[in-house]
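Project outcomes to date are best conveyed with an example. Our students and postdoctoral researchers have been running inverse folding experiments weekly, and each run begins with a structure described purely in tokens. The record below, which covers 281 residues, was selected by the lab manager from last quarter's runs and is presented without edits.
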């Protein structure tokens, strides 16, 4: 099992440069074909009184800037993939809704995994908002590269954040190629209770047995809920203490990307993450 078709989200020239090395590393590991995707959005031009007619020269100038970015990103992507000898293709679309368009979503849904880079900004632009929704609606596992990571490294230690949910289950099995190749995989649960999806005593144990049959070197651990320590803080500490290379978890309930992390953790915590994160829903 491997990720044979990868979709790399090249939303800006800066992200295209920084995501390139991670995409190449992933493609080389699984002998993958890479699709580079960029959405060129029609810019909104405010209407001007008294005629309330957009100025054609302004529209043209704004669109030329957007098209130049498309050209720059495509060149960066093609040059990186060609130099590294990676099988690849380039797709760019022009749409009034950006990454929320059906062209972008359908491109993602016909791939094995989507790779994207976290925005290094506390302010979410309109284009980043579109991208967040696109990633959430793709229906494919998404490998998110934190802005703090500048160079790819081997994925040796993996942490699965486990709560027995449908989303966590999807994430665990979507990550199988990484899990099989890793040196160690830990299934970690926080404050497990008896429920319809799992028993407190066996939290993660049955998943571990299934993964072990795939040849995964897997262990199970859990932590009780304590006052003042949330599940997300416990997971963050586990990532740091065990030098985790990849976090695997379900994406829950919200369309905004930073709200998806740990079922609603703040963007501040997401910005502090240092591990690659694979999410599924």
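After processing, the design step wrote out the following sequence:
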């Amino acid at each position: 099992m491997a990720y044979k078709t990868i979709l790399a989200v090249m939303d800006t020239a800066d992200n295209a440069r920084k995501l390139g090395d991670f995409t190449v590393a992933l493609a080389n590991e699984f002998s993958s074909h890479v699709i580079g995707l960029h959405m060129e959005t029609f810019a909104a031009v405010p209407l001007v009184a008294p005629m309330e007619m957009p100025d054609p020269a302004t529209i043209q100038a704004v669109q030329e800037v957007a098209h130049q970015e498309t050209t720059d990103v495509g060149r960066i992507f093609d040059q990186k993939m060609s130099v590294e000898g990676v099988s690849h293709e380039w797709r760019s679309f022009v749409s009034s809704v950006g990454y929320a368009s059906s062209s972008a979503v359908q491109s993602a849904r016909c791939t094995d995994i989507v790779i994207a880079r976290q925005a290094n900004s506390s302010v979410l632009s309109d284009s980043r908002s579109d991208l967040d929704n696109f990633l959430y609606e793709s229906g494919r596992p998404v490998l998110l590269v934190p802005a703090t990571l500048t160079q790819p490294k081997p994925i040796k230690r993996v942490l699965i954040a486990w709560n027995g949910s449908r989303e966590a289950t999807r994430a665990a099995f979507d990550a199988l190629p990484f899990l099989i190749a890793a040196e160690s995989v830990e299934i970690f649960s926080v404050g497990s209770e008896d429920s319809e999806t799992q028993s407190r005593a066996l939290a993660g144990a049955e998943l571990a047995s299934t993964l072990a049959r795939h040849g995964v070197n897997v262990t199970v651990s859990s932590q009780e809920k304590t006052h003042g320590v949330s599940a997300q803080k416990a997971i963050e500490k586990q990532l740091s203490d065990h030098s985790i290379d990849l976090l695997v978890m379900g994406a829950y309930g919200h369309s905004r990307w930073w709200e998806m992390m740990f079922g609603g953790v703040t963007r501040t915590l997401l910005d502090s993450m240092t591990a690659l994160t694979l999410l599924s829903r």
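The chain has two domains: 5-145, 157-280. Residues 157-280 form a domain with the Rossmann fold fold (CATH 3.40.50.620). The training component of this project remains on track.
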